[in-house]
Amino acid sequence: MGLKNSHPKLFPGDIVEYPRNKFFSHFGRLLRREGRRSVRRSPDQSRSDADTKIPLFGRALRSEVKLDPLELLGTKYRVNNMMDDTHSPRDFHGAVKPAIDDMIGQAVTFDILFHNSEHQATLFRYGVKRSEQIEKIYEHVMPAWKKLFMERKL
């Protein structure tokens, strides 16, 4: 991941990225700046519902939206408002924060390909679901699948 502790200036509504493992990052949203800063953690597969014993390749796991202190992220995180150049952020206090507040404590479905923490974070900030991490995987996987399909092996 290469994320360093840059101690960036954080603002409510920022997308906060922090490493989960050597390949993927996790994403949340900053809710408060003054006093105790909190990150709204998007769902992830490590918080899966107890009735889902076997992860189906990261698909359709039940999860809960939580509010955690920023300090829980450790020292390696960064602000990653990845789509600010192409999309306008939505009004945080008027639209985004109330929607996030309504989701806290609610059960949600996590799907690594179609609804992961990055999808959720960009959906709240921009109104668009996007995961650059998954797009990078598709860049590598799709050509291999296309070749197999063309050779009638898939």
From TrEMBL:
Write the record's keywords in alphabetical order, separated by commas.
Answer: Hydrolase, Lipid metabolism, Receptor, Transferase
Q: Which Gene3D superfamilies match?
A: endopeptidase domain like (from Nostoc punctiforme)
Q: Which domain of life is it from?
A: Eukaryota
Q: Does the keyword Electron transport apply?
A: no
> What GO CC annotations are associated with the protein?
cytoplasm
- One Pfam family, short name please? LRAT
Per its record, what are the GO molecular function terms?
N-acyltransferase activity; phospholipase A1 activity; phospholipase A2 activity
Q: Read off the PROSITE patterns from this record.
A: LRAT
**Domain LRAT: from-to ranges:** 16-133
BP term (GO), one: N-acylphosphatidylethanolamine metabolic process
Provide the family line: Belongs to the H-rev107 family.
Protein's recorded name: Retinoic acid receptor responder protein 3
Q: Which organism is it from?
A: Oryzias melastigma (Marine medaka)
